[in-house]
Design goal:
The structure holds 2 protein chains of 2 kinds.
Chain A lengths: L2 E5 L6 E6 L6 E3 H32 L8 H34 L8 H23 L17 H30 L9 H32 L7 H12 L1 H22 L6 H14 L16 H36 L8 H4 L6 H24 L2 H7 L4 H30 L6 H27 L22 H34 L8 H4 L24 H28 L4
Antiparallel strand pairs in A: 1-2, 2-3
Helix pairs in contact in A: 1-2, 1-3, 1-15, 2-3, 2-4, 2-5, 2-7, 3-4, 4-5, 5-6, 5-7, 5-8, 7-9, 7-11, 7-13, 8-9, 9-17, 11-13, 11-14, 11-17, 13-14, 13-15, 14-15
Chain B lengths: L6 H5 L4 H7 L1 H25 L6
The chains are: A mainly alpha, B mainly alpha.
The structure holds protoporphyrin IX containing FE.
Chain lengths: 577, 54
Amino acid sequence: MSVTAETGIIGGIAAKFRTCPATGLKVDLAAERLIKANAVAAIVFLAIGGVFGLLVALTRWQAVHLLPSDLFYLVLTAHGLDVLLVWIIFFEIAVLYFASAILLNCRLATPRIAWVAFGLMMVGALLANITVLQGEASVMFTSYVPLKAPPNFYLGIILFAVGALLGCFIFLGTLVIAKEEKTYEGSIPLVTFGALTACIIAVFTIASGAIILIPTWLWSLGYISHIDTVMYKLVWWAMGHSSQQINMAAQVAIWYAIPAILLGAKPLSEKVSRSAFLMYILFLQLASAHHMLVEPGISSEWKVFNTSYAIYLAVLGSMIHGMSIPGAIEAAQRGNGFTNGVFEWLRRAPWNNPAFAGMFLSLVLFGFLGGISGVVLGTEQINIMLHNTLYVPGHFHATVVAGTTLAFMAITYLLVPLIFQREIIWPKLAKWQPYLFGLGAAGISLFMMGAGTLGVSRRHWDITFSDATLSFDYPPAAFLMLGLNGMSAILAAIGGGLFVVIIVASVLFGKKVDASNIVAALGPTPQKQMSDAVKSYGNAGTFHLPGTYILVAIFFTAFVLYYFVNWKYLSELWQLG
Amino acid sequence: MAKTKSDAEESVRIPPMQRLLDNHFLLLFLGVAVPTVLYTLWGVMELSQIPIAE
Ligand code: HEM
């Protein structure tokens, strides 16, 4: 590997680069080390949090009912913390550094501060975990007041958030350096623009987190006597839900990146895709309001404006991406020669490449399961049927597990050869991994939604109410749903475990990658050379996409039917007359 | 005599929407300001108007 040192224009700071044999991009070695560290930390916490998830699911499976109640709530808190916060955000920081320094051909701003950020995030994550495992902080990751955890729980999350915020500023600083040092021409690439969207949402998210968690920490220390419960909930969700919108933007960026790298896919229209990201920047964060839909004391105007009028503009953004990405794939595949019939491009896509398979499954599962159920939950009237039932975790396992987690897994199959410079070990096993995990994740989403539709509560240890004074009988189908959820959880855990083992083994023992084997190391692709679509600006240049139009029509039909079925359920709730 | 723009200048004129999308710090401002006003401030104003129970 040849390493060159270059001195930048700003501050005359020197950085060391290698040249990527696949893309020809200059890779800043400091950025590369940071991407590796953040990605490895993320995967370790995914492994830990995933085990917790399995334990929770096996407890909610009434026939197994694995954990006693106190441990159930402890493990549920640790699960939410480790997967939703730690896994996802560590990985997002890796994505931000990749999309800035690497894709913009530039050095990373302030690598030393980036290590401080990494250290803060690690210390914060460990502190919060240790506090939860000590058993005094089973307050769920939402930590609604007046539930009180020991101060270190909040301090851990605050330190983690400060580290993540530093990571965001480093990303923004890198954009400034790239512009000043003219390492790209015109606009930043679309994938970097998606990462910028994620970063902007992250700044709002973390600022909201600071506004609410710092007083809560002081309250836990005894310096503040009272925190209003509804006020807490309002501001906490400005962080809690917006953090899901960081995932959304990051995962859409990845959905664009993978087909660009593997197939040479370009967006149907750069302008339209960027405008869709703008809709996210302006409106996506308002979705936080659906957590407040049943709260008294807030007007319907606030609720309906934030959850309907404005958020539908963000949903429109998602629909644009939802059409643009399969459209880009179809256009590229047709360009690659798969022009027969309506669906040859899809049939002959590289389904045995785990990066592509994971990406496409993530897109479909997110759209059909997560997107549609999200709009249902975000509608004030029908939300009332499902609020705080298991339908809610069902919905967000479709978004953050089948959607984001699977997308992050998919891009990891490319990061290993491109950044860790190792071949994926056991490619045959890797080929199956996204399908196993995707099936398991789809199962837990669907069956939790099923149980929720039957009224089963979320975060509930025992739905038989065995020691309760007032009993309640759920229909037998609810128990069936929880059993099927447990079985899907086992499948998802096997798929997730396989991912962790394959990636860790590849990083440690995979064959070294160089110019001779880099393209092969990216897995099967119809293009026998690396495309530069991911780092450049440009449109696909065609709208002859019959397959995509059919897929979009199927999606809309499912959407409309399911949405109206829920209104029908609502009309049956209260029998009038 | 009023100055006329040269053809070259005319052809590199960047459309306003693209200028907005290329202005990363303006986007950052909008992305923080819009939800702060519509969600947080509006919400806090409504909550602070709830009378305290006696
Ligand atoms: C093997 C994979 C996974 C399984 C089997 C699993 C299963 C579960 C189950 C059964 C619940 C409890 C629902 C309840 O009783 O209310 C739950 C909650 C949750 N899960 Fe997962 N999950 C998995 C992966 C993930 C991932 C990857 C994420 C995030 C990226 C995630 C985020 C959450 C969150 C935020 C909660 C809510 C915790 C709370 O209510 O406080 N899960 N999960």
